[in-house]
Design goal:
Layout (H helix, E strand, L loop, with lengths): L5 H65 L9 H4 L7 H7 L16 E2 L1 H6 L17 E2 L5 E2 L2 H6 L4 H10 L9 E3 L1 H4 L34 H6 L8 E5 L23 E2 L6 E2 L16 H9 L2 E2 L15 E6 L4 E5 L44
Parallel strand pairs: 1-6
Antiparallel strand pairs: 2-3, 4-5, 5-9, 7-8, 9-10
Length: about 375
């Protein structure tokens, strides 16, 4: 028969073995979690990446449907300052108004879940923009006799938190949102230049920039693709968007479920740029015609920095890009500088770490015009 004194010692010994076993088990579990967690993260990101590509294909189908009806792939960029009332003009409005739920087709990997358009409207000062139809038309009566209010006009007459409430009710809840950046060729197609190569703005007193709608020939049309010297398979029209430019990059106050400080997505890529200055090409010398302007413009490259490196881990991220033919291709940021380089030199101005070309010309067109030669 065991003595009273020996039982506690044995129990302590048994308890000791139990504690060791528990610690070993916990170590094994922690080791397995450390192994499996990155795998699960990759699986989740793979699912988000597949969802992003599917969304881009659906957007591509919507743009094609629009072009079948209207001839052009869209009515312009979704940009209140440069194109006008965002419930009427721009590719997002076009698709939402024809029944495509663009606001439900967001890149799930992006931290930028709201467009910079919301910053533009929140900070609207009430004055009409003379360089674009910023207020739009009157309210519309729908088939069921309900009134479709004009959000841009209503916002222009409102102040304070009322703007955010209007944006939420009349735009965000109705699907007017995106975190994809349109390609410049989709929304601008080509620049308007005179015979010296200088940009022409068709609206007097408005800024001269290749981003301005009135400095270009406008949205891409089917006939232009048919006559282009560049295959449709390499003309980019949509991609994951980076954060908007400084000053338009954060939400100033809450809109719906989006709190102040929410990062905002850029609207579209910015068009052809001089490789060194990253501005519109400048021609020098005397005379006019191609002998003067062809060289500088032909040496320019499309600025694709608004296509964001969204997918992947801390190294080797990628961006999904939609092309005119409906295909979606991923492009990798091989040097991990946060941008996709299509031939610009490395500089503090451009942000490119080196000269590595991550958007090869055989896969994505970077020229200034999809026509081989233009003589204005």
């Amino acid at each position: 028969m065991q003595s009273y004194e020996t039982v506690p010692r044995r129990r302590r010994k048994q308890d000791g073995f139990t504690l060791v076993e528990m610690m070993v088990t916990m170590s094994i579990i922690a080791f397995l979690v450390a192994i499996l967690l990155p795998v699960l993260q990759r699986v989740r990101e793979g699912a988000r990446d597949a969802n992003c590509k599917s969304n881009l294909r659906q957007i591509g189908l919507g743009l094609t449907q629009y072009s079948t009806r209207m001839g052009s792939y869209c009515s312009g960029a979704w940009d209140w300052k440069r194109d006008g009332a965002v419930h009427e003009v721009g590719w997002v409005a076009d698709l939402v108004n024809q029944g495509n739920p663009v606001g439900d087709l967001l890149c799930p990997s992006s931290p930028n879940q709201l467009s910079k358009v919301y910053h533009e409207l929140l900070t609207m000062d009430g004055a009409a923009n003379t360089c674009a139809d910023s207020l739009g038309g009157p309210n519309r009566t729908l088939p069921d006799n309900t009134i479709a209010e004009n959000p841009c006009s209503k916002i222009s007459k409102s102040g304070g938190t009322n703007k955010a409430e209007i944006l939420n009710e009349l735009l965000l809840k109705k699907g007017y949102n995106t975190n994809y950046a349109a390609g410049w060729f989709l929304v601008r197609t080509d620049v308007n230049i005179d015979r010296t190569g200088a940009l022409i703005n068709s609206k007097s007193g408005c800024q001269k920039s290749q981003r301005e709608r009135s400095c270009t020939i406008g949205p891409l049309i089917q006939a232009r693709i048919g006559g282009a010297k560049v295959p449709a398979s390499i003309i980019p029209i949509m991609g994951c968007a980076t954060m908007a430019e400084l000053g338009e990059d954060r939400l100033t106050e809450a809109v719906g479920d989006f709190p102040p400080g929410t990062p905002l997505a850029a609207s579209y890529t910015t068009g052809p740029r001089d490789k060194n200055t990253l501005k519109a090409p400048v021609t020098t010398g005397s005379g006019s015609g191609p002998s003067r302007w062809w060289g500088p413009w032909n040496a320019s490259l499309q600025d694709y920095r608004n296509f964001g490196v969204i997918h992947g881990g801390p190294t080797g991220g990628s961006c999904n890009i939609l092309f005119v033919d409906g295909a979606v291709h991923p492009f990798n940021d091989s040097n991990n500088d946060g941008f996709l380089n299509n031939g610009f030199p490395a500089s503090t101005l451009s942000g490119y770490a080196d000269d590595t070309v991550e958007l090869p010309p055989a896969m994505i067109y970077s020229g200034w015009s999809i026509d081989s030669v233009r003589i204005p």
